[in-house]
Amino acid sequence: MLFLLFDTLEETMLAERLYNKYSKFMFQAAYTVLKNNFYAEDAVQQAFIKIIKNLNKIDENDAKKTRNFIGVITQNTAIDIYNKVKNEPAGLDDNYTTDIKYDISHIIIDRETIERLKTHIKTLKPIYQIPLLLHAEQGLSANEIAEILDLKPKTVQKRIERARAQLIKALNKEDN
Fold first, then answer.
1. Tell me, what's the pLDDT at 7?
2. Most buried among 65, 85, 110, 173, using CB within 10 Å?
3. Per-residue pLDDT, 26
4. Is residue 60 a contact partner of residue 14, using CB atoms and an 8 Å limit?
5. pTM passes above 0.85
6. How far apart are the C-alpha atoms of 170 and 123, rounded to whole Å?
7. Which residues have a Cβ under 8 Å from the Cβ of 75 and sit 6 or more positions away?
8. How far apart are CA 65 and CA 94, in angstroms?
């Protein structure tokens, strides 16, 4: 959905190329810090938003500099998330993400996929739709969403996880 925010097709294409090229690297960098799939995915999303805001600082021709820039942003984002959640009672427990059967690095986002996602998001039950949109569009953490919705952070995490799984299932069903 973020790709709709770009002024030019060139910016959109650059963001897509960066995501396709570096998303696995970003996930690995975040997971190294967090040791948790859910939080690592959050870190990748938050880091990518920061990268998008700084596209003008990226020189695609200098792959080493670009990779380092992306790595630093991702690692710092992961550290920020770690510092926010380290005092939670459940800590960085990875038990609630074990049923996820997808890897964020395999999701390719293009305009068609964005439109399909928007359509499917509208069909989600509000208990899944609202936390997902707050997380994806507003960049809010599970803790911040939990405060807003007066829920436990684990509940918010599970609802976002279920919303993502429903979206993936719907997209896969469309493709078949």
1. 59
2. 85
3. 92
4. yes
5. no
6. 10
7. 29, 30, 33
8. 32
Instruction: State the Cα–Cα distance between residues 107 and 19, nearest whole angstrom.
Output: 10
* Positive/negative CA dihedral, 156, 160, 166, 167: positive
Q: Write out the chain in H/E/C secondary structure.
A: CHHHHCCCHHHHHHHHHHHHHHHHHHHHHHHHHHCCHHHHHHHHHHHHHHHHHCHHHCCCCCHHHHHHHHHHHHHHHHHHHHHHHCCCCCCCCCHHHCCCCCCHHHCCCCHHHHHHHHHHHHHCCHHHHHHHHHHHHHCCCHHHHHHHHCCCHHHHHHHHHHHHHHHHHHHHHHHC
Residue that the structure tokens 């920020």 belong to: 80
Choose between 67 and 114: higher pLDDT: 67
CB 41 within 8 A of CB 6: no
Backbone angles phi, psi at 61, to 5 degrees: -70, -20
Q: Which amino acid is at 168?
A: I
**Interval 76-86: pLDDT, tens:** 999 888 888 87
Length of the chain: 176
Task: Read off the pLDDT band of 149 (50, 70, 90).
Answer: confident
